[in-house]
Amino acid sequence: MVEKKRDFTGFYEQAGKEVHQETQTSDGSFTNSSLYPSSGESLPVLHSSQASNGAQPDREIFEYSTSQKEKLRFKRLISCVAGGIAAAIVLFASGVNPFTSDPAIGYQQSLGTNSAHITTASASFSSNGNVIPSIVQQSNGAVVLIKTYTKSSNRNSDILNDPFWFFFGGRSEQPESFNDSQLRLYGAGSGFFYKKGGYILTNEHVIANADQIEVTVDGSAEPFIATVLGKSVEHDLAVIKIGSEQDFPVLEMGDSDAMNVGDWVVAIGNPAGFDNTVTVGVISAKEREIPVSDKNGQRQYRHLLQTDASINSGNSGGPLINLDGKVIGMNTAKSSAAQGIGFAIPTSVFVPLIKYLEEGKSIPYSYIGLSLSDIKEDMLDDLNLNSVKGALVAQVLPGTPAFKAGIRQYDVIVKINGQAVEKSKDVVNQVLTLPIGEKVSLTVLRDGKETDFIVVVADKNTA
Question: Has this prediction a pTM greater than 0.85?
Answer without folding.
Answer: no
